[in-house]
Amino acid sequence: MAIDPFVQGLLDADQSLGWLGIAVTHAEGGFATAELIVSPNMGNGHRVAHGGVVFALADTAFAMAANSVLHGAPTADASIVYLAPSPIGEKLIASAQVTYSDRRRAVVDVTVTASGTTVAVYRGTARTARQHSSPTGH
């Protein structure tokens, strides 16, 4: 699958994805997919993925989808609804789609699944503050 060149620059500069275990497998044209395997150190007291891990995965897919159509757009707001637990050992897949965009904003809906079951839905808005020439601001 393809990754938009601007998004690739963001991924190359992002130091959090490695320790979070998140891999972005697709990001272009307002769509993105990110995934991770829920490891034991991501579990909470209920022995399922901590909600922050699920949010981080959804937020990553959101950011890549948004920035594939609106370069240099950070998160303005985001919310998530948890629908089912994400067991340790499961592969989570976050699929994001831009549902609205203009010159300064993008609204992105993300569905997080595990073994075909929807575990969370996320909606975020990205908004540009200024034009960036590169992901690192140079």
Report on this structure.
The chain has 138 residues and is of the alpha+beta class. The protein is built from three helices and six strands, in the order ααββαββββ. Strands 1-2-4-5-6-3 form a six-stranded antiparallel beta sheet. The chain is globular. It starts with a helix and ends in an 11-residue tail after the last strand.
Architecture blueprint of SSEs:
Layout: H1 5-13, H2 16-20, E1 23-28, E2 31-37, H3 51-69, E3 75-82, E4 91-101, E5 105-114, E6 117-127
Antiparallel strand pairs: 1-2, 2-4, 3-6, 4-5, 5-6
Which range best describes the helical content: under 10%, 10-25%, 25-40%, 40-55%, 55-70% or over 70%?
10-25%
DSSP strand tally: 6
Largest sheet: 6 strands, antiparallel
Give the overall pLDDT as a whole number: 94
How would you describe this structure in keywords?
138 residues; 3 helices; 6 strands
Can you summarize this structure?
This protein has 138 residues and is of the alpha+beta class.
